Every structure is written in structure tokens, then in C-alpha cells.
Amino acid sequence: MKRPTVFIVVTVLASQLLGVCAQAQISIAIPEIKSLNRYRIEPSGEFTITGTGFENVISVEINGVHISKYEINKNDHAITAMLPASATSGYVTVSDGTYSSQSPKVMIVGPTIVGFSPQAVTPGLTVTVSGLNFSDVTEVNLGSEQINDFTVSSPTTLTFAVPEKAATSLIGVHANGMSATSTDYLQLPMPVQLEYKLLKRAIAYLDLAVKAVRGKSSISNDNFNTAIGLLNRTLIPLARYLSAESTWVNDALTAINGAIQILNSPTLTATDKSSQALELLAAALTDVTNEYQSFGYKEYTDPGTYLFIVRDGTTSVYIQARGGDGGDGYDSDNNTADFQGDGGESKSGTYTVTPGEILTVTVSAGAAGNCDDGDGGHGGGVSVISSIGGIDIQAHGGGGAGGDGGGCGSKGGNGKLNIYW
């Protein structure tokens, strides 16, 4: 009689154990990604994965790259993750070591610029940019200037040719509605005419700052700070453009910043502020003036022919030439010379020269206006710079305007030539 009893007990216990095992198998969490909150993302951006079975997830990846920064929210069935800077576009995957799940769509990662070479260039040279996610790049910029001539060689490399009028700037790339900018500036030599003008402006602002503090017991901080603000805006681009050997810019900036600190001092008297700030500004003015005096500029505005002799130590010049304007035509209906002739052509460029070389400079006159019915105003003359060494710049004059008689149209404006060295 006891054997059946034992059999029944064993059967019950076995059934209970099998039920527990079945329940344990049913409660195993298998990760499954339902969706991502975003499928386009900037490098190092944050995103959220929603799904189920994330309790035991030990790995999150994108396109095979491990994501180290993530947090599992069991209550919301979500994982919040931050992309690494080295991430590339691809599927997002989560894994618990045994099971894994992949996002339903590819996550598109924005471009990243890692670096470029060479660091310093001249117009016409090719720059190679290295980075990530370049495959879909549709636009490349150098500062505010769009680069039309660029080639995407691979997802990590693109090249572009430096345009003629490019200036020192940051490099930018755009892809899939996202953009990246280089951390360093692509260095280009500052055009001599721009450097000359910036120096001239800096001297004017420095002089204004000196006048604001000289010999005053009550300093006008408003006037002084206005001058300093304008001055810094002038010198900072110079510091960016010029080579590391041009220490005068940094010296001038240091003096200016020192003057600002003095003026903002809560302990100095007005008299001490004036004398100490003036000393620093005088030093900055000396630095800038000495540099300015190393440049040369010659302007020709009167019609005629001139000879320009290249100075000692000068190996290049920047030339701006404009032809004479065409004559105007007369409008009898309004009794005015309303039919305007065309403006003269403008040309400019940097040219290699040798000390002692002679440039022949011809400035054209503006053309006479129209006086007879049906006749057009005369065409403007050609402004020319030429040399035996091969320089030949011709800025043609503008065409004259026709008139309806009854009076004479006005004479066109004269041509103009500028030389910077």
C-alpha cells in the first residue's frame, strides 16, 4: 500500500519542478530593438533606443564601433547612448552576450573633420582633408566662400583646390543636413593691399584710444572701450594671417589687453589709469607703426604716363587697375545726361618683380560725352601697366552711351591705378 503513495508524491514533486523550469524559461529576457528616436545624428550626439529585453544588455555598437557611454532604463524599456567621436554611419546593435538585435534602419552620422594638409597654402594648391562620413558630402566651404572644385576620394578623405581669392579661414563640410568645421585655420598669405589697409586702420584706432586717455583726470571709458573694440577687431585678423615669426602683432595685442585691464581696475585712480594705459598704448602704436612703414603704396589718378621703379628688397607687388569710364549720352526729355556710359574694366593681381625693375604706368582719361542726336558717347581709354619683365595689365575703358541730341552728355570718370608692395 505504501508504493502507490510514494509514486504519487514523486509525481507531484516532478510536476512542480517541471513547472518551475518552464516558468524560468519563459522569463528569460531577449533584447529586441523596436526603434531609435533619431536616425540622423551629429558625432558625439545622444540618442535613445526603445525596445524590450534590455535588462541584461552588455554591449551597444554602431557599425561595429563600441559605444561606451550608455544607460539602461528598465522601466521605460529604453537605452540612452552617446555616440563616440569615431562613429560612422551604420546599424545600431545591442547584445547581452548571447542574443543580439539590430536597429530597423541605418543611423546616418554627420561628417567629422579630423585634420588637413598642408596647413599653409597659396591659391591654386590642393588641400587634403581627413575625417569621417565624407561619402555624402555635398558642399565644402572655406570660411564664407563655397568651394566648387572638390572631390570625395573615400568616406575618410576629400580634396579641394584653393580658389584665387581665398583668405585664411576654417574649413567646413556639409552632408545630410549636418556640418562639421575644422578646429584649425587653413593659412593663406594675407594680400598685401589688405594688410596695408588693416595696419592703416589700426593706427587710426590706436591714435583715437591714446587721445581718449591722455592727460585726463577723469577717463572716458566709453570712448576708450569703443576705440579698443575696433582696434582688436583690426589686429586679431592680422595675428591670424601672419606667420609665427611676426611677434609684433602679439606684442601689440598684449599691450592693448593690458590697457583694458588697467582701465577696468577697481583700485587704481583715474590718473594712474591714464598714465599706465597710455604707456602700453604708446608701445602698441610703435609696433603697428613700424610694421606699417615697411609697406609701400602708390596711387595714380591723373591721366598720363608714369614710370614706377621697384624698391630694394621688393619681390612682389599687388596692382589694381581700372579703365576710364565711357561718356554719357544726353536725354533731351529730362534735360540731363541720363544715358550713362559703361564703367571702366577693373583688373587686379599679385605679380613677381625684381628690385630696380621699371614699370610703365598709363592712366586713361574718361571719354567725352555724346552731343549729337543718335551718336553714342565715346569709349573710355585703356589703363595699362607694363614692364620689360613681362607684366602686362590692360583694364579696358567702358563704352559710351547714346543720346537723343539737344545737349552734350557728361565726360566719363578717369581711370585709376594702385600699386602695393
- Average of the residue pLDDT scores: 81
Instruction: Please state the overall shape, judged from the principal axes of the Cα atoms.
Output: extended
| Major beta sheet summary | 4 strands, antiparallel
Q: Number of helical segments?
A: 5
Helicity level, as a percent range?
25-40%
Counting structural domains, the number is 4
The amount of beta strand, in percent, is 25-35%
Distance between the termini: 122 Å
Poorly predicted segments: 1-15, 20-25
**Helix/strand-derived class?**
alpha+beta
Give me the Rg, rounded: 37 Å
Number of strands: 28
Give, in spatial order, the strands making up the sheet with the most strands. Answer: 1-3-7-6
Strand and helix layout:
Layout: H1 2-26, E1 32-36, E2 40-41, E3 46-52, E4 59-62, E5 65-66, E6 69-73, E7 78-82, E8 92-95, E9 100-102, E10 108-109, E11 112-117, E12 126-132, E13 137-142, E14 145-147, E15 150-154, E16 157-161, E17 169-175, E18 178-186, H2 192-213, H3 221-241, H4 247-263, H5 270-292, E19 297-300, E20 304-309, E21 316-322, E22 329-331, E23 336-339, E24 346-352, E25 358-363, E26 383-387, E27 392-395, E28 416-420
Helix pairs in contact: 2-3, 2-5, 3-4, 4-5
